[in-house]
Structure formats: structure tokens, C-alpha cells
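User: Could you go from structure to sequence for me? I need the amino acid at each position, not a summary. C-alpha cells:
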């Protein structure tokens, strides 16, 4: 039987700390992260953190690319895009971000459902 995913077993506050730490360290400093988590009562090896960091980096790259695509699409496809400024532009950008967030959540849910069906955990797969 496969191991549960790191994000499934780690408390949310620690996962948020780990995500921020990994991003701020360029997805490195794995030993430092492992040691900090150990002081918080959550023991995990650097190999597991490395797999998690790789998955997080991939997620962040995809998210950044999707946001750039939405921004480009919104600015190029809106009629009279030059005339949309101020609060109207803010609302349109927020709607785009919400649509992107919805898409990302649906993709995550699809992955979780696939994981439940297959027992394969995306962050433990080899690249």
C-alpha cells in the first residue's frame, strides 16, 4: 500500500510554513526545513521534503503560467481594453483570478480523485 501524501498528513499551519520556506529558499534548504519541522513535532526526511518541493515548484510554475495567460487573454480580447480602467479593470482582473483559482481547485480535486482510485500520490511520483 502506498504512503499517504505529505500534504494529507501535515497540519495545515506547518504545510503553509513549509510552502513559504521552500519558495523563499528557491525550493532548497531541505535539511533546514526538516530540522524545523522536527522541532514542531513533525518528523520527515529530506527526501520526502525534496519530492514535495519538486511538486510545489511544478505547481507554482503552472500557476504562474496560467495567471500570465489569463492576464494576456483579458488584455487582448476585451473590446476597448484601453477604456477599461480603474475599478472596472480591478473587477475584471479579480474575476480572471477567481476563474483561474476555480480551475486549479478542480484540477486538484481531479488529482485527488485519481489518487483515491489508483493509490498514486502525485508528489511521490518520479519526474
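Assistant: Here is the amino acid at each position, in order:
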Amino acid at each position: 500500500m502506498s504512503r499517504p501524501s505529505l500534504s494529507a498528513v501535515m497540519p495545515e499551519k506547518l504545510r503553509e510554513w513549509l510552502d513559504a520556506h521552500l519558495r523563499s529558499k528557491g525550493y532548497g534548504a531541505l535539511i533546514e526545513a526538516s530540522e524545523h519541522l522536527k522541532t514542531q513535532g513533525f518528523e520527515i526526511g529530506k527526501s520526502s521534503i525534496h519530492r514535495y518541493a519538486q511538486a510545489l515548484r511544478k505547481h507554482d510554475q503552472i500557476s504562474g503560467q496560467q495567471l500570465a495567460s489569463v492576464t494576456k487573454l483579458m488584455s487582448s480580447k476585451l473590446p476597448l481594453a484601453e477604456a477599461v480602467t480603474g475599478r472596472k479593470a480591478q473587477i475584471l482582473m479579480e474575476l480572471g483570478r477567481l476563474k483561474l483559482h476555480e480551475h486549479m481547485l478542480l484540477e486538484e480535486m481531479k488529482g485527488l480523485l485519481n489518487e483515491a482510485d489508483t493509490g498514486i500520490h502525485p508528489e511521490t511520483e518520479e519526474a
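One structural detail worth keeping in mind: The two ends are 21 Å apart (CA to CA).
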